[in-house]
Amino acid sequence: MRATDAAYAVLKAQGQPMDVQDLLDETLTRLGVDREARIAARIYTDINLDARFQYRGGSAWGLKEWQPKPTGRTTSSRDRGGYDDDGDDLEEDDG
Predict the structure, then answer these.
(1) pTM of the model
(2) 1, 3, 36, 37: most buried by Cβ count inside 10 Å?
(3) What are the boundaries of each domain within the chain?
């Protein structure tokens, strides 16, 4: 089993983001490998490069698939550059 597949399985089983050190510990345990700085660093690098994983801030990692799927694009005035559908400026004139 590849290390990233093991890390994916750990996160999938956990069901929520994990601290990277806990994720590495659980991944190494699943692989049956003793923790060595060199091995942990390589796995961390591989997680960074694998599109299935997503950094959540504060040293936490989760799975990208946990992000809600967009249901459709809603357009705000900011998206339209501050203009309504007719191209008129949305801000009211004071005078």
Answers:
(1) 0.71
(2) 3
(3) 3-62
